[in-house]
Structure formats: structure tokens, C-alpha cells
Specification:
heterodimer; A: mainly alpha; two-stranded antiparallel sheet; 6 helices; 2 strands; B: mainly alpha; 89% helix; 0% strand
């Protein structure tokens, strides 16, 4: 699997979900259906408005056959109380 | 899992159909009562308002139930739509938004307030108006919070 670096931008939750989705030529709707969520949630995760739960993060990572930390960057979250 | 959900949707459709029937019966009873009320002409503005409020509420519940029946019937015909509805109802982001805007507590509370308001309305109109305003205010606050968190999250 091609590696894509996460870019840190302020308080946003960094993810390479959008890049992975484009790499696999998937629409947000298709990914949402595959992982059992809504298109709006995928959009929110991609733009960093919403932090996915562990279960959803696992489902997304599992779908792309990756580890969770390869899709999501939790380095900012770890420093939070 | 989807089969269980399908059964749930079918049960929900039956419940909505029952609600439509109850609403139709209540509307019929109300119309008969209204005809009697209009003929009698002894009630004041408040009596008329209370009856009108009840009538409007029953019609609103009936219309919402009919919409629900149509929506569920259309969804149950298509597996893709069932999956979409399942995802929407079990979406963790929406669950989080709902929790933040007080769902289902505020909606249940509003329902109780409206029922109490209707009962109290037969004895004291000031309390009736106050309770109705409180219920409407609560719903607006909940709606405002939902819109805010939908944009924020």
C-alpha cells in the first residue's frame, strides 16, 4: 500500500482518508456504505470536523487493509486531556 | 442484522398505520364536537383556541404518521434504501449530535408538557398558554442546537 503522510493543521484531526479514498477510486457514499456510516460523517472526518470513534476508525482502516494509525494521526489527540 | 432491522421497520410501519387510524377517529370526533360547539355558541375565545389547538395537533400527528408510512413503504421495497436508513439511524456522528441537543429527552418532555397543557387547559388557560410556550421554546432550542452541532461536527 502506498504511504501518504498526514499534514498537521491546527486543531483538526489529521487523516489521509481522502487520499486513500481517491487512491481506491471510491466515492464518499461508497465508503460510507462499506463501513456502515453516512456520507456526511465521511465528509466531516475528511475535513477534520469530526473525530471518528475507535470502532469506526478500525472499520475504515480494515476496509483499506491498513492499521488505524496508518489512516489517522492521533498525535494531537494523545496530548489532549 | 439487516433482517432484524427490516422487521423493526415493518413494526414501525404498523405502529404508524395505527396512529393514522387513531388520528382519523379523533379528527372525526373533533369535527362532530366542533359542529356542536359552533351551534351552541357559548364558549369564549379560550375554549375555541383550546379546541383548535387539539384539532391542529391531531391533524399534525396524523399527517406525520402518513408521511412515515409512505417513507417506510418506499424504503422497504429497496435493499439499498434500507441499508442507507440503517446507516443514518446508527451513525455515530448523528448519535453524538442527537445526544448533545437533548434527544430524545427534550422531545419526550415536550410531549408530556403538551399533554399536561391540554388537560390543564380545561381548568386554567394561563397555565395552558405558558406550558405550550415552554414546549415550543424547548423544541426551538433543541432544533437550534441540532443545526449548530450539525454544522460544527
Amino acid at each position: 500500500m502506498q504511504s501518504i503522510l498526514c499534514i498537521k493543521t491546527g486543531d483538526k484531526m489529521n487523516t489521509k482518508l481522502k487520499e486513500l479514498r481517491k487512491l481506491h477510486k471510491l466515492s464518499q457514499e461508497e465508503l460510507a456504505m462499506a463501513v456502515g456510516t453516512t456520507r456526511q460523517t465521511i465528509t466531516s472526518i475528511e475535513v477534520g470536523k469530526y473525530t471518528a470513534s475507535l470502532v469506526l476508525a478500525y472499520k475504515i482502516a480494515h476496509y483499506f487493509d491498513l492499521q488505524i494509525e496508518e489512516v489517522f494521526d492521533f498525535s494531537d489527540v494523545e496530548t489532549e486531556e | 442484522m439487516m433482517e432484524d432491522y427490516k422487521k423493526k421497520l415493518k413494526a414501525r410501519r404498523v405502529r404508524s398505520c395505527v396512529l393514522v387510524l387513531v388520528a382519523v377517529c379523533l379528527v372525526t370526533a373533533h369535527i362532530l364536537y366542533l359542529l356542536d360547539f359552533a351551534r351552541d355558541d357559548t364558549g369564549g375565545f379560550n375554549d375555541g383556541f383550546l379546541i383548535g389547538f387539539q384539532f391542529g395537533l391531531i391533524i399534525a400527528i396524523g399527517v406525520l404518521a402518513i408521511i412515515e408510512v409512505f417513507k417506510l413503504s418506499r424504503t422497504l421495497k429497496d435493499e439499498h434504501k434500507i441499508k442507507l436508513m440503517y446507516n443514518e439511524e446508527h451513525d455515530e456522528r448523528m448519535a453524538s449530535i442527537r445526544a448533545k441537543c437533548g434527544h430524545p429527552l427534550i422531545q419526550s418532555l415536550c410531549m408530556v408538557i403538551v399533554i399536561v397543557a391540554i388537560v390543564v387547559g380545561y381548568f386554567n388557560f394561563t397555565i395552558f398558554y405558558t406550558l405550550v410556550v415552554i414546549a415550543i421554546f424547548e423544541l426551538f432550542v433543541s432544533l437550534g442546537l441540532k443545526l449548530y452541532y450539525t454544522k460544527k461536527m
